[in-house]
Design goal:
With 141 residues, the chain is mostly helical. The protein has helices spanning 2-23, 49-55, 60-95, 102-139, and strands spanning 31-33, 39-42, 45-46. The protein has a 3-stranded antiparallel β-sheet, with no helix packed on it.
Length: 141
């Protein structure tokens, strides 16, 4: 009987320890997937920026960082749209053999170039917000 207890008790303690560790694994952390587009995933579902802001509600620092990223992305998209429209309009005129105003096409290309730093800053701040959120979730604050 003593020999049986000698193995059963450590086995129960061992199993209880690992099941407790497994039970504390957090599945609600956000994963960043890099590719041609940066995607943010939660439990296999891609999150939109507004969903991330709502998810980060209990963590104001991360939420503020995400709002900054959304603002920067919006400004970058405005510049990109305007630049693409202006450059495309005048390049299209040149392709149809109408007189093109190349300085305005260059202005459109410049607006496109201005949008790139805004996009890069938005991605950087979104990743920073995800790191802050995941850290806060993992330490339980």
């Amino acid at each position: 009987m003593f020999m049986l207890m000698k193995w059963i008790l450590p086995t129960i303690v061992f199993l209880a320890t690992f099941s407790a560790c497994k039970g504390q694994a957090r599945l609600d952390t956000i994963v960043v997937q890099q590719g041609s587009v940066t995607a943010f995933m939660l439990n296999g579902k891609q999150l939109r920026p507004k969903e991330m802001v709502a998810l980060m509600q209990p963590y104001p620092l991360a939420q503020g960082q995400m709002r900054t990223a959304i603002s920067q992305n919006t400004v970058g998209q405005v510049f990109a749209f305007a630049g693409g429209f202006v450059a495309g309009w005048f390049i299209g005129r040149a392709l149809t053999e109408r007189p093109a105003r190349w300085p305005l096409a260059a202005l459109g290309a410049g607006l496109l170039g201005i949008s790139v730093p805004f996009h890069n800053a938005a991605v950087k701040n979104a990743k920073r917000a995800v790191r802050m959120y995941n850290y806060s979730v993992l330490i339980g604050q």
